[in-house]
């Protein structure tokens, strides 16, 4: 990803696409994303990111709030990659 | 045997009543003889018990589920319990007001089925004048902000319209389109010779799907294209294995591991009125019957692929070989593969058999013929 692309991504405001729903699923002991006739079980780190994708803050703000929550982790690149991937798969609108 | 996982998919067949008469319906051919439908409270109890077991996806189907006047109540309760709620409908009997009230009740998604991409063929297959109303309902689904799956059940008579189906789905702004080739169970098994497409038709349909994707005509729309297993040489991993992820409750409360499980004789399927769903799922003989691998015979038992396809479909094994524990004869390792070739050949005979349409009258005639 080029620097220009990256700075463009920082201003995106991601939220789950229409029809996708995030919820805690006790039977899976995980957060999941539900969608028509399907379910993605999220890893711990994925669920931290998706919980921030509320459509109310941009990617830069999401990274900042995750860095505050996990001060010892280098996470900016992972967040950018995850959001780009989920948006390419069509379940996160940016 | 270890404790089974959760039945992630719960399918509630709310009613067998349906204004359409599709000759490939997966309902049992003797549906006219079913018991009394569960009432609202009984359904809500099923949903609660299913959720406790870990079910996350709820299908509301039938028959035509919109016929149930308590559908909104059932949806609202399901949504409150945390299900992702999917309504599987033909759109007939629906109104724009009803779509809006389902949205308000918390319904998550609507799948609308079409019988074809043209009015004439659609109405002939459905046995009713339904095409224009379906278009109207598909638009109402989108207007209310629902994600929409359009489902075309394909077969010999309509599979040559795949281009048109994809274009129609695009015009209606579908989010997903399913081109689901008829599976030969229920009414479709009865009509198999007339419904089965030939190999050339399947190849053209697949080419049409690929062309649509390659030309990026509508990238946002996801397409699922499923070919009939008769043309494969390995069986489908039916239901991801018996009693593995899926549970179906019929209108009268019978719990089944798949749509057609009742074709297999000598299995007593429990009813939700008599037994908690948890006992049905974990402990009933019916749901344990083909779990795991111990029930398998050769060539499945020693096959390296058994954990991939679970020996295929138990119903198909029974319907085509008379033994529900046999290898699904779709598999070319099955000693019975010839029955599949014979079925394909029978569907190529030029003399046309009449289609038997799914309705209560035909259901009763078929049932009394069986009893005679």
Give an overview of the whole structure.
The complex is a heterodimer of chains A (94) and B (372). Chain A has a single domain (3-89), classed as Arc Repressor Mutant, subunit A, CATH 1.10.10. Chain A has four helices and five strands, in the order αββββαααβ. Chain A has a three-stranded antiparallel β-sheet with strand order 2-3-4, with helices on one face. Chain A has a two-stranded antiparallel sheet with strand order 1-5. By secondary structure, chain A is of the alpha+beta class. Chain A is globular. Chain A has helices spanning 3-10, 44-52, 59-69, 76-89, and strands at 15-16, 21-25, 30-35, 38-41, 92-93. Chain B has 372 residues and is α/β, with parallel strands linked by helices. In chain B, 36% of the residues lie in helices and 12% in strands. Chain B is built from 15 helices and nine strands. Chain B has a nine-stranded mixed β-sheet, with helices on one face. In chain B, α1 links the parallel β1 (9-13) and β2 (57-61). In chain B, α2 runs parallel beside α3. Chain B is globular. The mean pLDDT of chain B is 93. Chain A binds chain B through residues 18-19, 21, 23, 25-28, 32, 34-39, 90, and chain B through 6, 8, 53-54, 56-57, 59, 82, 84, 86, 108-109, 111, 145-147, 149, 175-176, 220, 222.
Walk me through the topology.
The complex is a heterodimer of chains A (94) and B (372).
Chain A: H1 3-10, E1 15-16, E2 21-25, E3 30-35, E4 38-41, H2 44-52, H3 59-69, H4 76-89, E5 92-93
Chain B: E1 9-13, H1 40-53, E2 57-61, H2 71-81, E3 84-89, H3 96-105, E4 109-114, H4 119-126, H5 131-143, E5 148-154, H6 162-171, E6 176-181, H7 186-190, H8 192-195, H9 199-214, E7 222-226, E8 246-249, E9 255-256, H10 277-283, H11 285-288, H12 306-309, H13 314-321, H14 338-346, H15 360-371
Helix pairs in contact in B: 1-2, 2-3
Shape of chain A: globular
Briefly note the CATH topology name of chain A: Arc Repressor Mutant, subunit A
- Domains of chain A, number: 1
Our Rg estimate of chain A from Cα atoms comes to: 13 Å
Give Rg of chain B in angstroms: 20 Å
Amino- and carboxy-terminal Cα gap of chain A: 17 Å
Major pleated sheet of chain A? 3 strands, antiparallel
Helix/strand order of chain B, N-terminal first: EHEHEHEHHEHEHHHEEEHHHHHH
User: What share of residues are in beta strands of chain B?
Assistant: 5-15%
Strand order within the widest beta sheet of chain A: 2-3-4
Task: Name the strands of the widest sheet of chain B in spatial order.
Answer: 7-6-5-4-3-2-1-8-9
